[in-house]
Design a protein that fits this description.
heterodimer; A: mainly alpha; 13 helices; B: two-stranded antiparallel sheet; 11 helices
Chain lengths: ~325, ~300
Protein backbone atom coordinates (compact mmCIF):
# COMPACT_ATOMS: atom_id res chain seq x y z
CA UNK A 1 0.00 0.00 0.00
CA UNK A 2 2.69 2.45 1.06
CA UNK A 3 4.77 1.39 -1.91
CA UNK A 4 1.79 2.04 -4.14
CA UNK A 5 1.26 5.52 -2.72
CA UNK A 6 4.95 6.26 -3.15
CA UNK A 7 4.84 5.04 -6.74
CA UNK A 8 1.78 7.16 -7.50
CA UNK A 9 3.42 10.19 -5.91
CA UNK A 10 6.44 9.68 -8.11
CA UNK A 11 4.20 9.38 -11.15
CA UNK A 12 2.77 12.82 -10.49
CA UNK A 13 6.23 14.38 -10.78
CA UNK A 14 6.35 14.33 -14.61
CA UNK A 15 2.83 15.75 -14.75
CA UNK A 16 3.75 18.55 -12.37
CA UNK A 17 6.94 19.15 -14.31
CA UNK A 18 4.94 19.63 -17.50
CA UNK A 19 2.59 22.00 -15.68
CA UNK A 20 5.58 23.94 -14.36
CA UNK A 21 7.12 24.21 -17.84
CA UNK A 22 3.79 25.37 -19.28
CA UNK A 23 3.29 27.96 -16.56
CA UNK A 24 6.88 29.12 -16.93
CA UNK A 25 6.75 29.37 -20.71
CA UNK A 26 3.46 31.30 -20.56
CA UNK A 27 5.43 34.49 -20.08
CA UNK A 28 8.07 33.63 -22.66
CA UNK A 29 5.47 32.97 -25.34
CA UNK A 30 4.21 36.51 -25.24
CA UNK A 31 5.89 39.05 -27.38
CA UNK A 32 7.82 41.58 -25.40
CA UNK A 33 10.16 41.67 -22.47
CA UNK A 34 9.08 39.32 -19.65
CA UNK A 35 10.75 41.60 -17.12
CA UNK A 36 8.67 44.53 -18.32
CA UNK A 37 5.53 42.40 -18.20
CA UNK A 38 6.26 41.18 -14.67
CA UNK A 39 7.09 44.66 -13.51
CA UNK A 40 3.76 45.94 -14.76
CA UNK A 41 2.66 49.20 -16.25
CA UNK A 42 3.66 51.37 -13.30
CA UNK A 43 7.30 50.24 -13.22
CA UNK A 44 10.26 52.43 -14.07
CA UNK A 45 13.33 51.28 -15.94
CA UNK A 46 15.28 50.57 -12.73
CA UNK A 47 12.53 48.13 -11.60
CA UNK A 48 12.79 46.33 -14.91
CA UNK A 49 16.55 46.04 -14.63
CA UNK A 50 16.19 44.70 -11.07
CA UNK A 51 13.67 42.09 -12.14
CA UNK A 52 15.77 41.07 -15.12
CA UNK A 53 18.69 40.51 -12.80
CA UNK A 54 16.65 38.69 -10.17
CA UNK A 55 15.13 36.29 -12.71
CA UNK A 56 18.40 35.97 -14.61
CA UNK A 57 16.74 36.85 -17.89
CA UNK A 58 20.11 37.41 -19.56
CA UNK A 59 21.03 33.77 -19.04
CA UNK A 60 20.07 30.71 -21.18
CA UNK A 61 16.40 29.70 -20.99
CA UNK A 62 17.11 26.37 -19.27
CA UNK A 63 19.04 28.15 -16.53
CA UNK A 64 16.21 30.65 -16.16
CA UNK A 65 13.77 27.81 -15.67
CA UNK A 66 16.03 26.27 -13.02
CA UNK A 67 16.21 29.57 -11.16
CA UNK A 68 12.45 30.04 -11.34
CA UNK A 69 11.65 26.50 -10.23
CA UNK A 70 14.13 26.89 -7.39
CA UNK A 71 12.29 29.98 -6.17
CA UNK A 72 8.92 28.28 -6.53
CA UNK A 73 10.00 25.18 -4.63
CA UNK A 74 11.13 27.34 -1.74
CA UNK A 75 7.71 29.01 -1.73
CA UNK A 76 8.86 32.23 -3.38
CA UNK A 77 6.49 33.15 -6.17
CA UNK A 78 7.83 36.66 -6.38
CA UNK A 79 6.07 39.88 -5.58
CA UNK A 80 2.69 40.83 -6.91
CA UNK A 81 3.05 44.27 -8.46
CA UNK A 82 -0.68 44.85 -8.31
CA UNK A 83 -1.27 43.95 -4.67
CA UNK A 84 2.23 45.06 -3.60
CA UNK A 85 2.70 41.93 -1.56
CA UNK A 86 4.54 38.63 -1.67
CA UNK A 87 2.41 36.31 -3.80
CA UNK A 88 2.75 33.53 -1.20
CA UNK A 89 1.27 35.80 1.50
CA UNK A 90 -1.46 36.89 -0.85
CA UNK A 91 -2.46 33.29 -1.46
CA UNK A 92 -2.45 32.52 2.26
CA UNK A 93 -4.82 35.45 2.81
CA UNK A 94 -7.21 34.23 0.16
CA UNK A 95 -7.19 30.49 0.69
CA UNK A 96 -9.68 30.47 3.59
CA UNK A 97 -12.86 31.52 1.75
CA UNK A 98 -12.12 29.20 -1.16
CA UNK A 99 -11.49 26.25 1.14
CA UNK A 100 -14.72 26.95 3.01
CA UNK A 101 -16.69 27.25 -0.24
CA UNK A 102 -15.21 24.08 -1.71
CA UNK A 103 -15.81 22.06 1.47
CA UNK A 104 -19.42 23.21 1.76
CA UNK A 105 -19.97 22.36 -1.90
CA UNK A 106 -18.48 18.89 -1.61
CA UNK A 107 -20.59 18.09 1.45
CA UNK A 108 -23.82 19.35 -0.11
CA UNK A 109 -23.15 17.57 -3.37
CA UNK A 110 -22.41 14.16 -1.95
CA UNK A 111 -25.25 14.36 0.58
CA UNK A 112 -27.76 15.29 -2.12
CA UNK A 113 -26.45 13.52 -5.20
CA UNK A 114 -25.79 9.99 -3.93
CA UNK A 115 -29.31 9.49 -2.49
CA UNK A 116 -30.78 11.01 -5.66
CA UNK A 117 -28.83 8.56 -7.80
CA UNK A 118 -29.80 5.60 -5.63
CA UNK A 119 -33.48 6.58 -5.71
CA UNK A 120 -33.38 7.04 -9.47
CA UNK A 121 -31.78 3.63 -9.96
CA UNK A 122 -34.25 2.01 -7.60
CA UNK A 123 -37.18 3.49 -9.52
CA UNK A 124 -35.67 3.05 -12.96
CA UNK A 125 -38.00 4.14 -15.74
CA UNK A 126 -40.50 5.89 -13.47
CA UNK A 127 -41.15 9.62 -13.32
CA UNK A 128 -38.79 9.88 -10.31
CA UNK A 129 -35.96 8.51 -12.42
CA UNK A 130 -36.82 10.79 -15.33
CA UNK A 131 -36.99 13.78 -13.00
CA UNK A 132 -33.53 13.07 -11.56
CA UNK A 133 -32.02 12.46 -14.98
CA UNK A 134 -33.70 15.55 -16.38
CA UNK A 135 -32.28 17.60 -13.54
CA UNK A 136 -28.89 16.07 -14.24
CA UNK A 137 -28.89 17.12 -17.91
CA UNK A 138 -30.18 20.55 -16.90
CA UNK A 139 -27.52 20.87 -14.19
CA UNK A 140 -24.85 20.28 -16.80
CA UNK A 141 -26.28 22.89 -19.10
CA UNK A 142 -27.17 25.87 -16.96
CA UNK A 143 -23.99 27.89 -16.48
CA UNK A 144 -22.85 28.44 -12.94
CA UNK A 145 -23.33 32.22 -13.03
CA UNK A 146 -26.87 31.89 -14.32
CA UNK A 147 -27.67 29.58 -11.41
CA UNK A 148 -25.95 31.97 -9.02
CA UNK A 149 -27.88 35.03 -10.12
CA UNK A 150 -31.16 33.11 -10.19
CA UNK A 151 -30.62 31.99 -6.59
CA UNK A 152 -29.66 35.53 -5.54
CA UNK A 153 -32.77 36.87 -7.25
CA UNK A 154 -35.12 34.37 -5.61
CA UNK A 155 -33.66 33.97 -2.13
CA UNK A 156 -31.97 37.31 -1.51
CA UNK A 157 -33.89 39.90 -3.49
CA UNK A 158 -37.43 38.48 -3.67
CA UNK A 159 -37.65 36.49 -0.45
CA UNK A 160 -34.95 38.38 1.43
CA UNK A 161 -33.89 35.27 3.33
CA UNK A 162 -30.16 35.40 2.77
CA UNK A 163 -27.52 38.09 2.25
CA UNK A 164 -26.93 38.95 -1.40
CA UNK A 165 -23.17 38.76 -1.61
CA UNK A 166 -20.01 38.86 0.41
CA UNK A 167 -18.10 36.70 2.80
CA UNK A 168 -17.62 36.68 6.54
CA UNK A 169 -14.73 34.84 8.18
CA UNK A 170 -15.71 32.12 10.63
CA UNK A 171 -13.95 34.06 13.40
CA UNK A 172 -16.54 36.82 13.11
CA UNK A 173 -19.45 34.55 13.86
CA UNK A 174 -20.57 31.13 12.72
CA UNK A 175 -24.08 32.25 11.76
CA UNK A 176 -22.98 34.90 9.31
CA UNK A 177 -20.27 32.62 7.96
CA UNK A 178 -22.75 29.88 7.12
CA UNK A 179 -25.47 32.28 5.92
CA UNK A 180 -23.15 33.78 3.35
CA UNK A 181 -21.91 30.42 2.13
CA UNK A 182 -25.28 28.76 1.55
CA UNK A 183 -26.06 30.32 -1.83
CA UNK A 184 -22.56 30.16 -3.33
CA UNK A 185 -22.05 26.56 -2.32
CA UNK A 186 -25.51 25.59 -3.60
CA UNK A 187 -24.72 27.34 -6.87
CA UNK A 188 -21.44 25.56 -7.24
CA UNK A 189 -22.86 22.19 -6.24
CA UNK A 190 -25.48 22.02 -9.00
CA UNK A 191 -23.10 20.76 -11.69
CA UNK A 192 -21.43 18.48 -9.17
CA UNK A 193 -24.76 17.04 -8.05
CA UNK A 194 -25.70 16.44 -11.69
CA UNK A 195 -22.43 14.62 -12.29
CA UNK A 196 -22.50 12.46 -9.16
CA UNK A 197 -26.22 11.63 -9.33
CA UNK A 198 -25.83 10.45 -12.90
CA UNK A 199 -22.87 8.16 -12.25
CA UNK A 200 -24.43 6.85 -9.02
CA UNK A 201 -27.55 5.84 -10.92
CA UNK A 202 -25.57 4.18 -13.73
CA UNK A 203 -23.24 2.22 -11.48
CA UNK A 204 -26.00 1.11 -9.10
CA UNK A 205 -28.04 -0.11 -12.06
CA UNK A 206 -25.05 -2.07 -13.25
CA UNK A 207 -24.49 -3.65 -9.83
CA UNK A 208 -28.21 -4.45 -9.42
CA UNK A 209 -27.88 -6.98 -12.23
CA UNK A 210 -25.29 -9.00 -10.30
CA UNK A 211 -25.96 -12.46 -8.87
CA UNK A 212 -25.20 -11.47 -5.30
CA UNK A 213 -27.97 -8.88 -5.40
CA UNK A 214 -30.40 -11.63 -6.39
CA UNK A 215 -29.06 -13.75 -3.55
CA UNK A 216 -29.49 -10.87 -1.12
CA UNK A 217 -33.05 -10.41 -2.27
CA UNK A 218 -33.71 -14.14 -2.19
CA UNK A 219 -32.71 -14.40 1.43
CA UNK A 220 -35.35 -11.79 2.16
CA UNK A 221 -33.30 -8.67 2.88
CA UNK A 222 -35.32 -5.49 2.76
CA UNK A 223 -34.82 -3.36 -0.33
CA UNK A 224 -33.15 -0.60 1.67
CA UNK A 225 -30.44 -2.93 2.96
CA UNK A 226 -29.88 -4.41 -0.50
CA UNK A 227 -29.47 -0.94 -1.96
CA UNK A 228 -27.32 0.60 0.72
CA UNK A 229 -25.18 -2.27 1.87
CA UNK A 230 -24.83 -4.39 -1.24
CA UNK A 231 -25.40 -2.15 -4.23
CA UNK A 232 -24.03 1.22 -3.14
CA UNK A 233 -20.89 -0.23 -1.62
CA UNK A 234 -20.02 -2.09 -4.76
CA UNK A 235 -20.88 0.90 -6.92
CA UNK A 236 -18.60 3.17 -4.91
CA UNK A 237 -15.49 3.05 -7.08
CA UNK A 238 -16.93 4.82 -10.15
CA UNK A 239 -18.69 7.30 -7.88
CA UNK A 240 -15.46 8.20 -6.13
CA UNK A 241 -13.68 8.46 -9.51
CA UNK A 242 -16.24 10.97 -10.71
CA UNK A 243 -15.95 12.96 -7.49
CA UNK A 244 -12.24 13.23 -8.33
CA UNK A 245 -12.85 14.22 -11.95
CA UNK A 246 -15.41 16.75 -10.78
CA UNK A 247 -12.80 18.63 -8.80
CA UNK A 248 -11.76 20.23 -12.08
CA UNK A 249 -15.33 21.53 -12.48
CA UNK A 250 -15.21 22.66 -8.89
CA UNK A 251 -12.03 24.69 -9.39
CA UNK A 252 -13.37 26.26 -12.57
CA UNK A 253 -16.65 26.93 -10.81
CA UNK A 254 -14.90 28.54 -7.84
CA UNK A 255 -13.47 31.21 -10.14
CA UNK A 256 -16.92 32.12 -11.43
CA UNK A 257 -18.88 31.70 -8.21
CA UNK A 258 -16.53 33.87 -6.20
CA UNK A 259 -16.94 36.59 -8.79
CA UNK A 260 -20.73 36.35 -8.74
CA UNK A 261 -20.92 36.41 -4.93
CA UNK A 262 -17.98 38.78 -4.32
CA UNK A 263 -16.11 36.28 -2.18
CA UNK A 264 -12.47 37.30 -1.64
CA UNK A 265 -11.01 33.87 -2.36
CA UNK A 266 -8.45 32.38 -4.73
CA UNK A 267 -10.89 32.36 -7.64
CA UNK A 268 -11.54 36.07 -7.33
CA UNK A 269 -7.79 36.59 -6.93
CA UNK A 270 -7.20 34.74 -10.21
CA UNK A 271 -9.61 36.97 -12.12
CA UNK A 272 -8.30 40.15 -10.51
CA UNK A 273 -4.73 39.10 -11.27
CA UNK A 274 -5.55 38.34 -14.91
CA UNK A 275 -7.38 41.63 -15.35
CA UNK A 276 -4.40 43.48 -13.83
CA UNK A 277 -1.94 41.36 -15.87
CA UNK A 278 -0.30 40.42 -12.58
CA UNK A 279 1.65 37.48 -13.98
CA UNK A 280 3.51 36.29 -10.87
CA UNK A 281 0.14 35.86 -9.16
CA UNK A 282 -1.47 34.20 -12.18
CA UNK A 283 1.41 31.72 -12.41
CA UNK A 284 1.27 30.91 -8.72
CA UNK A 285 -2.49 30.39 -8.63
CA UNK A 286 -2.50 28.13 -11.68
CA UNK A 287 0.34 26.09 -10.30
CA UNK A 288 -1.40 25.80 -6.95
CA UNK A 289 -4.79 24.78 -8.38
CA UNK A 290 -3.11 22.18 -10.60
CA UNK A 291 -1.20 20.69 -7.68
CA UNK A 292 -4.39 20.48 -5.65
CA UNK A 293 -6.19 18.82 -8.55
CA UNK A 294 -3.45 16.26 -9.11
CA UNK A 295 -3.05 15.47 -5.41
CA UNK A 296 -6.79 15.11 -4.82
CA UNK A 297 -6.98 12.67 -7.70
CA UNK A 298 -4.10 10.76 -6.19
CA UNK A 299 -6.13 10.60 -2.99
CA UNK A 300 -9.05 9.24 -5.00
CA UNK A 301 -6.86 6.49 -6.42
CA UNK A 302 -5.71 5.55 -2.96
CA UNK A 303 -9.31 5.52 -1.77
CA UNK A 304 -10.09 2.74 -4.27
CA UNK A 305 -8.02 0.25 -2.37
CA UNK A 306 -9.85 1.09 0.84
CA UNK A 307 -13.29 0.85 -0.77
CA UNK A 308 -12.67 -2.19 -2.86
CA UNK A 309 -10.12 -4.56 -1.35
CA UNK A 310 -10.12 -6.55 -4.59
CA UNK A 311 -8.09 -3.75 -6.18
CA UNK A 312 -4.45 -4.39 -5.37
CA UNK A 313 -1.38 -2.77 -6.71
CA UNK B 1 -11.87 1.99 -66.74
CA UNK B 2 -15.67 1.93 -66.55
CA UNK B 3 -15.74 -1.57 -65.10
CA UNK B 4 -13.93 -0.36 -62.01
CA UNK B 5 -15.71 2.97 -61.72
CA UNK B 6 -19.25 1.66 -61.87
CA UNK B 7 -19.41 -0.03 -58.45
CA UNK B 8 -17.82 2.96 -56.68
CA UNK B 9 -20.44 5.20 -58.20
CA UNK B 10 -23.22 2.96 -56.95
CA UNK B 11 -21.61 2.74 -53.52
CA UNK B 12 -21.56 6.46 -53.15
CA UNK B 13 -25.16 6.85 -54.23
CA UNK B 14 -26.77 4.08 -52.23
CA UNK B 15 -26.01 4.19 -48.52
CA UNK B 16 -25.22 0.85 -46.98
CA UNK B 17 -27.69 -0.88 -44.70
CA UNK B 18 -25.73 0.23 -41.65
CA UNK B 19 -25.80 3.89 -42.64
CA UNK B 20 -29.55 3.95 -43.22
CA UNK B 21 -29.96 2.20 -39.88
CA UNK B 22 -28.04 4.94 -38.10
CA UNK B 23 -30.01 7.67 -39.81
CA UNK B 24 -33.32 6.05 -38.94
CA UNK B 25 -32.26 5.57 -35.35
CA UNK B 26 -31.08 9.16 -35.09
CA UNK B 27 -34.43 10.42 -36.36
CA UNK B 28 -36.22 8.19 -33.86
CA UNK B 29 -34.23 9.43 -30.90
CA UNK B 30 -36.25 12.19 -29.22
CA UNK B 31 -33.19 13.82 -27.63
CA UNK B 32 -31.44 14.14 -31.01
CA UNK B 33 -34.52 15.57 -32.71
CA UNK B 34 -35.38 18.04 -29.92
CA UNK B 35 -31.76 19.11 -29.41
CA UNK B 36 -31.18 19.61 -33.13
CA UNK B 37 -34.46 21.49 -33.51
CA UNK B 38 -33.57 23.96 -30.73
CA UNK B 39 -30.11 24.44 -32.20
CA UNK B 40 -31.45 25.07 -35.70
CA UNK B 41 -33.85 27.60 -34.21
CA UNK B 42 -31.10 29.44 -32.36
CA UNK B 43 -28.87 29.38 -35.42
CA UNK B 44 -31.73 30.78 -37.51
CA UNK B 45 -32.35 33.52 -34.94
CA UNK B 46 -28.66 34.44 -34.95
CA UNK B 47 -28.38 34.50 -38.75
CA UNK B 48 -31.67 36.31 -39.28
CA UNK B 49 -31.02 38.82 -36.47
CA UNK B 50 -30.91 41.88 -38.80
CA UNK B 51 -34.44 41.13 -40.06
CA UNK B 52 -36.01 40.34 -36.69
CA UNK B 53 -36.82 43.95 -35.84
CA UNK B 54 -33.47 44.56 -34.17
CA UNK B 55 -31.44 47.75 -33.98
CA UNK B 56 -27.65 48.12 -34.08
CA UNK B 57 -26.58 45.96 -31.09
CA UNK B 58 -23.59 48.21 -30.36
CA UNK B 59 -25.46 51.53 -30.63
CA UNK B 60 -25.18 53.47 -27.40
CA UNK B 61 -28.08 55.73 -26.44
CA UNK B 62 -27.66 57.51 -23.07
CA UNK B 63 -31.22 58.82 -23.08
CA UNK B 64 -32.74 55.34 -22.67
CA UNK B 65 -30.33 53.81 -20.14
CA UNK B 66 -31.57 51.03 -17.85
CA UNK B 67 -35.10 50.60 -19.11
CA UNK B 68 -37.17 47.57 -18.24
CA UNK B 69 -38.43 45.05 -20.78
CA UNK B 70 -41.14 46.38 -23.05
CA UNK B 71 -40.06 50.02 -22.86
CA UNK B 72 -41.12 52.01 -25.91
CA UNK B 73 -38.68 54.67 -27.03
CA UNK B 74 -39.64 57.66 -29.16
CA UNK B 75 -36.83 58.19 -31.63
CA UNK B 76 -36.41 60.97 -34.14
CA UNK B 77 -35.62 60.12 -37.74
CA UNK B 78 -33.18 62.16 -39.82
CA UNK B 79 -36.03 63.98 -41.55
CA UNK B 80 -37.60 65.05 -38.24
CA UNK B 81 -40.45 62.53 -38.16
CA UNK B 82 -40.84 60.34 -35.10
CA UNK B 83 -40.84 56.60 -34.86
CA UNK B 84 -41.07 54.21 -31.92
CA UNK B 85 -38.54 51.56 -30.94
CA UNK B 86 -39.79 48.88 -28.62
CA UNK B 87 -37.11 47.49 -26.29
CA UNK B 88 -38.57 44.03 -25.76
CA UNK B 89 -35.89 42.98 -23.27
CA UNK B 90 -35.12 46.46 -21.98
CA UNK B 91 -31.83 48.31 -22.30
CA UNK B 92 -28.49 48.10 -20.49
CA UNK B 93 -26.53 50.76 -18.59
CA UNK B 94 -25.36 52.30 -21.89
CA UNK B 95 -28.82 52.33 -23.41
CA UNK B 96 -28.14 49.50 -25.84
CA UNK B 97 -31.07 47.31 -26.83
CA UNK B 98 -30.76 43.99 -24.96
CA UNK B 99 -33.10 42.18 -27.38
CA UNK B 100 -30.83 43.03 -30.33
CA UNK B 101 -27.72 42.15 -28.37
CA UNK B 102 -29.13 38.79 -27.30
CA UNK B 103 -30.09 37.89 -30.87
CA UNK B 104 -26.73 38.90 -32.31
CA UNK B 105 -25.03 37.16 -29.39
CA UNK B 106 -26.25 33.82 -30.73
CA UNK B 107 -23.83 34.28 -33.63
CA UNK B 108 -20.77 34.60 -31.41
CA UNK B 109 -21.69 31.66 -29.21
CA UNK B 110 -22.36 29.28 -32.07
CA UNK B 111 -19.34 30.49 -34.03
CA UNK B 112 -17.01 29.95 -31.08
CA UNK B 113 -18.57 26.57 -30.25
CA UNK B 114 -18.31 25.14 -33.75
CA UNK B 115 -14.88 26.61 -34.52
CA UNK B 116 -13.36 25.36 -31.28
CA UNK B 117 -14.81 21.88 -31.85
CA UNK B 118 -13.54 21.74 -35.44
CA UNK B 119 -10.02 22.94 -34.61
CA UNK B 120 -9.53 20.85 -31.48
CA UNK B 121 -10.86 17.73 -33.18
CA UNK B 122 -8.61 18.28 -36.21
CA UNK B 123 -5.48 18.85 -34.14
CA UNK B 124 -6.35 16.15 -31.62
CA UNK B 125 -7.07 13.65 -34.38
CA UNK B 126 -3.67 14.21 -36.01
CA UNK B 127 -1.76 13.95 -32.73
CA UNK B 128 -3.83 10.96 -31.63
CA UNK B 129 -3.28 9.02 -34.85
CA UNK B 130 0.45 9.72 -34.74
CA UNK B 131 1.01 8.75 -31.10
CA UNK B 132 -1.24 5.74 -31.47
CA UNK B 133 0.90 4.57 -34.33
CA UNK B 134 4.41 5.84 -33.62
CA UNK B 135 4.97 4.16 -30.30
CA UNK B 136 8.17 5.91 -29.22
CA UNK B 137 6.43 9.28 -29.36
CA UNK B 138 3.59 8.04 -27.20
CA UNK B 139 5.28 8.38 -23.81
CA UNK B 140 6.50 11.93 -24.32
CA UNK B 141 3.37 13.30 -25.97
CA UNK B 142 1.00 11.72 -23.48
CA UNK B 143 2.95 13.14 -20.52
CA UNK B 144 2.57 16.59 -22.05
CA UNK B 145 -1.15 15.94 -22.52
CA UNK B 146 -1.46 14.80 -18.89
CA UNK B 147 0.21 18.01 -17.83
CA UNK B 148 -2.17 20.16 -19.87
CA UNK B 149 -5.12 18.23 -18.47
CA UNK B 150 -3.90 18.78 -14.93
CA UNK B 151 -4.69 22.48 -15.32
CA UNK B 152 -8.45 23.01 -15.00
CA UNK B 153 -9.80 24.08 -18.42
CA UNK B 154 -11.27 27.41 -17.34
CA UNK B 155 -8.06 28.44 -15.56
CA UNK B 156 -5.92 27.52 -18.54
CA UNK B 157 -8.24 29.44 -20.85
CA UNK B 158 -8.16 32.49 -18.57
CA UNK B 159 -4.37 32.34 -18.43
CA UNK B 160 -3.96 32.03 -22.20
CA UNK B 161 -6.36 34.91 -22.83
CA UNK B 162 -4.48 37.06 -20.34
CA UNK B 163 -1.34 36.73 -22.42
CA UNK B 164 -2.70 38.29 -25.56
CA UNK B 165 -4.97 41.14 -26.37
CA UNK B 166 -8.56 40.10 -25.92
CA UNK B 167 -10.38 39.13 -29.07
CA UNK B 168 -12.25 36.38 -30.84
CA UNK B 169 -9.10 34.58 -32.04
CA UNK B 170 -7.47 34.65 -28.60
CA UNK B 171 -10.63 33.29 -27.02
CA UNK B 172 -10.85 30.45 -29.55
CA UNK B 173 -7.18 29.52 -29.05
CA UNK B 174 -7.62 29.68 -25.29
CA UNK B 175 -10.52 27.25 -25.37
CA UNK B 176 -8.94 24.92 -27.96
CA UNK B 177 -5.76 24.27 -25.96
CA UNK B 178 -7.38 22.57 -22.95
CA UNK B 179 -9.68 20.53 -25.22
CA UNK B 180 -6.94 19.02 -27.42
CA UNK B 181 -5.66 16.46 -24.87
CA UNK B 182 -9.16 15.06 -24.38
CA UNK B 183 -9.46 14.43 -28.12
CA UNK B 184 -5.95 12.97 -28.30
CA UNK B 185 -6.76 10.52 -25.51
CA UNK B 186 -9.93 9.38 -27.23
CA UNK B 187 -8.31 8.92 -30.66
CA UNK B 188 -5.28 7.20 -29.20
CA UNK B 189 -7.39 4.68 -27.29
CA UNK B 190 -9.35 3.84 -30.45
CA UNK B 191 -6.14 3.48 -32.48
CA UNK B 192 -4.54 1.25 -29.86
CA UNK B 193 -7.52 -1.11 -29.79
CA UNK B 194 -8.09 -1.16 -33.54
CA UNK B 195 -4.49 -1.78 -34.54
CA UNK B 196 -4.67 -5.23 -32.93
CA UNK B 197 -7.71 -6.22 -35.02
CA UNK B 198 -7.21 -9.08 -37.50
CA UNK B 199 -8.26 -6.97 -40.50
CA UNK B 200 -5.55 -4.44 -39.75
CA UNK B 201 -3.06 -7.25 -39.46
CA UNK B 202 -4.36 -8.58 -42.77
CA UNK B 203 -3.94 -5.19 -44.40
CA UNK B 204 -0.37 -4.96 -43.09
CA UNK B 205 0.42 -8.46 -44.33
CA UNK B 206 -0.70 -7.67 -47.87
CA UNK B 207 1.71 -4.77 -47.82
CA UNK B 208 -0.52 -1.72 -47.32
CA UNK B 209 1.76 1.26 -46.65
CA UNK B 210 1.32 2.97 -43.30
CA UNK B 211 -0.40 6.13 -44.46
CA UNK B 212 -3.21 4.48 -46.48
CA UNK B 213 -3.54 1.91 -43.70
CA UNK B 214 -4.12 4.58 -41.10
CA UNK B 215 -6.43 6.63 -43.28
CA UNK B 216 -8.50 3.80 -44.70
CA UNK B 217 -8.63 1.27 -41.89
CA UNK B 218 -7.99 3.07 -38.63
CA UNK B 219 -9.33 6.59 -39.14
CA UNK B 220 -12.95 5.53 -39.89
CA UNK B 221 -13.16 3.85 -36.48
CA UNK B 222 -12.42 7.11 -34.73
CA UNK B 223 -15.24 9.01 -36.46
CA UNK B 224 -18.31 7.94 -34.41
CA UNK B 225 -16.78 8.65 -30.98
CA UNK B 226 -15.24 11.86 -32.35
CA UNK B 227 -18.62 13.14 -33.54
CA UNK B 228 -19.95 12.60 -30.03
CA UNK B 229 -16.90 14.21 -28.44
CA UNK B 230 -17.06 17.16 -30.83
CA UNK B 231 -20.65 17.82 -29.81
CA UNK B 232 -19.67 17.98 -26.15
CA UNK B 233 -16.76 20.28 -27.03
CA UNK B 234 -19.24 22.66 -28.68
CA UNK B 235 -21.15 22.83 -25.39
CA UNK B 236 -18.01 23.33 -23.31
CA UNK B 237 -16.68 25.98 -25.69
CA UNK B 238 -19.92 27.99 -25.62
CA UNK B 239 -19.89 27.80 -21.84
CA UNK B 240 -16.25 28.84 -21.44
CA UNK B 241 -16.61 31.69 -23.94
CA UNK B 242 -19.55 32.99 -21.91
CA UNK B 243 -17.56 32.65 -18.68
CA UNK B 244 -14.55 34.49 -20.14
CA UNK B 245 -16.75 37.32 -21.40
CA UNK B 246 -18.66 37.39 -18.13
CA UNK B 247 -15.42 37.72 -16.15
CA UNK B 248 -14.35 40.52 -18.47
CA UNK B 249 -11.34 38.74 -19.98
CA UNK B 250 -12.95 37.51 -23.19
CA UNK B 251 -14.28 39.14 -26.33
CA UNK B 252 -14.27 42.98 -26.07
CA UNK B 253 -17.37 44.27 -24.26
CA UNK B 254 -18.86 46.21 -27.18
CA UNK B 255 -19.27 42.97 -29.16
CA UNK B 256 -22.65 41.47 -28.35
CA UNK B 257 -22.08 38.09 -26.71
CA UNK B 258 -24.27 36.53 -24.06
CA UNK B 259 -21.44 36.64 -21.54
CA UNK B 260 -20.80 40.32 -22.26
CA UNK B 261 -24.46 41.23 -21.82
CA UNK B 262 -24.44 39.49 -18.45
CA UNK B 263 -21.18 41.14 -17.42
CA UNK B 264 -22.77 44.46 -18.29
CA UNK B 265 -25.82 43.63 -16.18
CA UNK B 266 -23.86 42.57 -13.08
CA UNK B 267 -23.60 45.94 -11.40
CA UNK B 268 -27.31 46.72 -11.47
CA UNK B 269 -28.57 43.17 -11.15
CA UNK B 270 -30.66 43.90 -8.08
CA UNK B 271 -32.76 46.52 -9.86
CA UNK B 272 -32.60 45.27 -13.46
CA UNK B 273 -32.30 41.48 -13.48
CA UNK B 274 -33.35 41.26 -17.15
CA UNK B 275 -29.81 41.95 -18.39
CA UNK B 276 -28.71 38.67 -16.87
CA UNK B 277 -31.99 36.81 -17.17
CA UNK B 278 -32.51 36.91 -20.95
CA UNK B 279 -29.01 36.05 -22.17
CA UNK B 280 -28.86 33.46 -19.37
CA UNK B 281 -31.96 31.72 -20.69
CA UNK B 282 -30.58 31.68 -24.24
CA UNK B 283 -27.20 30.43 -23.08
CA UNK B 284 -28.66 27.66 -20.94
CA UNK B 285 -31.07 26.63 -23.69
CA UNK B 286 -28.28 26.43 -26.27
CA UNK B 287 -25.98 24.38 -24.07
CA UNK B 288 -28.89 22.15 -23.08
CA UNK B 289 -29.70 21.55 -26.75
CA UNK B 290 -26.08 20.70 -27.59
CA UNK B 291 -25.84 18.34 -24.63
CA UNK B 292 -29.09 16.63 -25.61
CA UNK B 293 -27.81 16.22 -29.13
CA UNK B 294 -24.56 14.81 -27.76
CA UNK B 295 -26.33 12.33 -25.47
CA UNK B 296 -28.57 11.19 -28.31
CA UNK B 297 -25.65 10.83 -30.74
CA UNK B 298 -23.68 8.90 -28.15
CA UNK B 299 -26.48 6.43 -27.51
CA UNK B 300 -27.00 5.93 -31.24
CA UNK B 301 -23.50 6.03 -32.70
CA UNK B 302 -21.49 4.59 -29.88
CA UNK B 303 -23.54 2.43 -27.54
CA UNK B 304 -20.39 1.29 -25.77
CA UNK B 305 -19.88 4.83 -24.47
CA UNK B 306 -23.30 4.82 -22.83
CA UNK B 307 -21.80 3.79 -19.53
CA UNK B 308 -19.28 6.56 -19.56
CA UNK B 309 -20.17 10.11 -18.81
Amino acid sequence: MLAYIARRLLATIPVMAVVAVLVFSMLRLTSGDPAAIIAGAAANSQDIVDIRQKLGLDRPIVEQFAIWIGHVLSGDFGESFFFKKQVADLILDRVGPTLALATFTMVWSVLIAVPLGVIAANRQGTWVDRLVMGFSVLGFSVPVFVIGYTLIYVFSIRLNWLPVQGYQPIAEGLGGFIQRLILPSLTLSVIYIALIARITRTSILEVLGEDYIRTARAKGLPNRVVLMRHALRNAAVPIITVIGIGIAFLIGGVVVTESVFSIPGLGRLTVDAVLARDYPTVQAVILLFSIVYVLLNLLVDVAYTLLDPRIRY
Amino acid sequence: MPAVEAPTAIDSVRPTALQTGVRARLLKSPTVVVGAAILVMILAIGLAAPWLDTVDPAAINPSVRNKGPGFVELARNADGTQRTIEHRMGTDTLGRDVYSRVLYGARTSLLVGVTVAAISVAIGLCIGLIVGYVRWLDGIVMRVMDGVMAIPAILLAIAVVSLSSAGLVAVIVAIVIPEIPRVVRLVRSVVLSVREEPYVEAAISVGTPTLPLVIRHILPNTIPPLIVQATYIVAVAILIEAILSFLGVGIPPETPTWGNIMAEGRALFRIFPHNILYPGIFLALTILAVNMLGDGLRDTLDPRMKKRL
